[in-house]
């Protein structure tokens, strides 16, 4: 072992430990999801490439949540049926674990997780402040949630992982996500990037920003970091998530894109992403 390796090993261990603590709830006995060669997505899939990058997935996840909450029915499900105020970290952790299990986990575990989420959606519903009924299992509503995640995860990866990603691989990623969309009851299901963008565009007329939207966004963007070590990392990924939003969505939220500090933000996020890839590299 070289002197550089002797220095790098404990540093890598520290970084990996901190990251795993963000995504696994030790109090519930959670451990990192082990990669399975017979997972729903094969190791050579685009999904493994995109979903395996910690930083770009976090950035994409923040953007996806900010997009999803613009739909009043999606927002109502969060508002009426979750403890987001007291457990935003837990919500983010559960989402990350869902992605890890369904992408990398054993196929039986992935299918069980998808079936569990669908059962939960089937029992969630209520009434909007204007009296309109909503159901979390509404296929069109699930399509909105799905395209927000697919496009945000993909754009996060392109920005911080693979800037030259081909359009063919982007389409392949969206097509692979059908394996998640179908069991959840999504309809319509996009098979290409253009189809996903068309669904998002078609839904824009239903989007709203009100006091509840601003409240949930505030809880998401101003949440306290789980540790002092995680603080700078969280601050960067939250800002990068806002930056990743389409301009129209950022404007709806009343969020500004840093003009002077934008190059620094993107460079810092790219540096964090590179460091984490180094730490997790065998």
Written overview of the protein:
- The chain is mainly α and 282 residues long.
- The chain has 14 helices and two strands, in the order H-H-H-H-H-H-E-E-H-H-H-H-H-H-H-H.
- The protein has a two-stranded antiparallel sheet.
- Helix 3 (54-68) packs across helix 12 (230-244) and helix 12 crosses helix 14 (262-280).
- The longest helix has 22 residues, at 139-160.
List the helices and strands and how they pair.
Blueprint: H1 3-23, H2 46-51, H3 54-68, H4 72-81, H5 88-104, H6 107-122, E1 125-127, E2 133-135, H7 139-160, H8 167-176, H9 178-184, H10 193-203, H11 211-221, H12 230-244, H13 247-253, H14 262-280
Antiparallel strand pairs: 1-2
Helix pairs in contact: 1-14, 3-7, 3-12, 5-6, 7-10, 12-14
Compact summary:
This protein is mostly helical and 282 residues long. The chain has helices spanning 3-23, 46-51, 54-68, 72-81, 88-104, 107-122, 139-160, 167-176, 178-184, 193-203, 211-221, 230-244, 247-253, 262-280; strands spanning 125-127, 133-135.
Q: What are the low-pLDDT stretches, counting only 5+ consecutive residues below 50?
A: none
What count of helical segments does DSSP give?
Answer: 14
- Estimated structural class: mainly alpha
Proportion of strand residues = under 5%
Helix content: 55-70%
Outline, from the CA principal axes? globular
Roughly how many Å apart are the termini? 14 Å
**Average of the residue pLDDT scores:** 87
């Amino acid at each position: 072992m070289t002197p550089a390796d002797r220095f790098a090993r404990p540093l890598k261990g520290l970084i990996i430990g901190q990251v795993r603590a963000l995504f696994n709830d030790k109090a519930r006995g959670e451990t990192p999801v082990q990669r399975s060669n017979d997972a729903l997505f094969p190791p050579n899939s685009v999904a493994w490439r995109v979903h395996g990058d910690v930083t770009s997935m976090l950035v994409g996840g923040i953007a996806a949540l900010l997009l999803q909450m613009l739909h009043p029915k999606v927002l109502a499900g969060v508002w009426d049926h979750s403890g987001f105020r007291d457990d935003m970290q837990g919500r983010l952790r559960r989402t990350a674990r869902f992605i890890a299990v369904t992408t990398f986990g054993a196929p039986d575990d992935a299918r069980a997780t998808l079936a569990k989420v669908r059962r939960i959606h089937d029992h969630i519903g209520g009434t909007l402040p204007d009296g309109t009924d909503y159901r979390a299992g509404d296929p069109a509503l699930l399509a909105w949630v799905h395209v927000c995640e697919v496009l945000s995860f993909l754009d996060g990866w392109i920005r911080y992982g693979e800037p030259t990603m081909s359009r063919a691989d982007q389409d392949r990623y969206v097509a692979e996500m059908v394996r998640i969309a179908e069991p959840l009851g999504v309809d319509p299901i996009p098979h290409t990037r253009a189809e996903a963008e068309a669904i998002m565009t078609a839904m824009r007329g239903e989007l709203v920003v009100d006091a509840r939207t601003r409240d949930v966004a505030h809880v998401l963007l101003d949440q306290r970091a789980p540790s002092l070590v995680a603080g700078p990392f969280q601050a960067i990924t939250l800002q990068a998530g806002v930056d990743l939003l389409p301009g129209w969505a950022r404007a709806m939220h009343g969020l500004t894109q840093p003009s002077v500090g934008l190059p620094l933000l993107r460079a810092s996020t790219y540096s964090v992403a590179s460091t984490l890839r180094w730490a997790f590299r065998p």
